[in-house]
Amino acid sequence: MDDLTDFIINNNLQCFQHKYKKNDLFNKAKLLEKYNNEIIDFNKVEFQALFFFMTTLNLYVKDFNPNLLKNKISMYFDRNVYGTKETESFKFPSEKFIISDMTFCEKSKIELLFLPDFLGFLLKKSREFLIQKNDNNELTRNAHKNYLKIKSSINFHSINIRNEVIENTINLIK
Length: 174
Prior knowledge:
- Helix content is 47%, strand content 14%.
- By secondary structure, the chain is α/β, with parallel strands linked by helices.
- The chain has one domain.
- The protein has a three-stranded mixed sheet, with no helix packed on it. Strands 1-5 form a two-stranded parallel sheet.
- Strand 3 and strand 4 form a beta hairpin.
């Protein structure tokens, strides 16, 4: 755990945290179902979570932190939602996106795909550590320590765009 944390920090790998508030946004975003096609499905919670992550990440990078990433970023995702049988790619049709394309593939094809899972693991175990206070469990204590190490680095970005902004965007699109 310590080595992976150091790997992220030492290689300046950017970590983005975005909380999808399903209870607040799921039914509102279903209003966009008229745009559904073979890839887009606003009736699926997994698609909405990905959609909100990608759009808020794009907004965060373009408007709030424009020097953080270079233009034309490609993103790779575990194929647990899309590309479940094979590798599947998607190019963004708009120049408004700093992310030019994304690919869903098997984790074994790109070994670094485990890093988001590792960060999610640290977040989950850190939350458990905080809830259980004075936890003697070495795993949760070490996860919390490493989460704090990443969070305090320049590599960690919590994207916290208010629901009102997202809701206004949905209303403009529909």
